[in-house]
Amino acid sequence: GREVTPVLRELARRGASSNHAYSLNGYTVQSRFHLFTGSVANLRGPTSLIDDFQANGYEVAYFSAQDESFGDGEYDIGFSRADVAYDARQDRGLRYTTFTTPGSLAVPFGVLRTRIAEFLAARRGDRPLFLYVNFHDTHFPYHHDLVQPLVAATALPQGDIAPGRRDALWSTYANTAANVDRAIGEVLGDVSRAVGAEPGIVVTADHGESLYDEGFLGHGYALNDEQTRIPLVVANLPMRIREPFG
After folding, report:
1. Which single residue of 21, 32, 71, 181 could bond 245 by disulfide (Cβ 3.0 to 4.6 Å)?
2. What number of other Cβ atoms are within 10 A of residue 230's Cβ?
C-alpha cells in the first residue's frame, strides 16, 4: 500500500516508459558497455557516449557509486576521458560495503548526491551538460545504515538472508529502492536549480535481480525477466520507445 518509486512514476507520467525493456546481459561490466556504446558485439570501436557528447560540445560528468575499474579492459567505455570522473575509489573511507574486491567497493546514495552537488556548485556552466549517475545501493546485501525506513520499518540482516526469508528480503529490497528513488529526485532537483532548466532524463539499469526467484539470489546467471528486465523511464526528451526495447 505504499509507493516505492514515486519519483520514477511521476517522470513516467509526464514522459514515457516501458514495461518491456531488457538488458542484453545481466552482468554489470558487459551491460555498462552496451549502454554506452550501443554495440553488443563491440563493433563500434574505441569510443562511447562520453566521446559523442564531448564531440558535440558537452561537458561530460560521470558519477558512479561503484569502482569503475571493475571489469575486463575489453569493455572499457572511456570513464577516464570524462571531463569529471568520480567513482567509489575516491571515497573508500565512506564505503558501505565490507568486501574488498573491486566489484564490491561501493559508496551510498548520500555520498554520491553530495559529490554531484559539489560539482554543480563549482562548474562554470558555459557548456551544456551530460551527467551520468550510477547508484549501487540495491545490490547485495540490499541495505546499509544510511537507508531510511520509507516503505518498510525493518530490514533483513545480511546473516538472515535465506530462501525461507524471501518476503522479508523483498521488503528490504523495495525499501532500499525507495531510498534510491528519493535520491534520484534530489539529484534532479539539484541539477534543475544549477542549470536553470528541467533536464532531459533517461533512467534505466544495467540488470535486474533475482531474490530467490527460481531459487537463485543475485544476477548475471540467467536470461530470465528477473535478471534482465530493467526500468526505462524518459522525460523531457523527444524519444519514442518501441517495445520490446534492448
Report:
1. 21
2. 19
DSSP for residue 215: T
Q: Residue 178 has what DSSP assignment?
A: H
Q: What is residue 97's predicted lDDT score, i.e. its pLDDT?
A: 87
Question: How many angstroms separate the CA atoms of 57 and 76, rounded?
Answer: 22
At 222-239, the pLDDT tens digits run 989 999 999 999 999 999
Q: What's at 172, amino acid-wise?
A: T
- d(C-alpha 159, C-alpha 141), whole Å: 9
C-alpha span between 7 and 246 (Å, rounded): 23
Name residues whose C-beta falls within 8 Å of residue 175's C-beta, 6 or more positions apart in sequence.
143, 147, 149, 150, 151, 152, 155
Cβ neighbours of residue 206 under 8 Å, at least 6 residues apart? 23, 28, 31, 32, 35, 230
- Give the pTM: 0.97
Would you call 81 exposed, middle or buried from its count of C-beta atoms within 10 A (0-12, 13-18, 19+)? middle
Q: What is the DSSP string of 97-148?
A: ----SGGG-B--HHHHHHHHHHHHHH----S-EEEEEE--TTSTT---TT--
Beta bridge partners of 234: 16, 202
What's the pLDDT score for residue 116? 98
- The CA–CA distances, whole Å, from 45 to 26, 178, 181, 221 equal 22, 37, 34, 27
Query: pLDDT tens for residues 72-82?
Result: 678 999 999 99
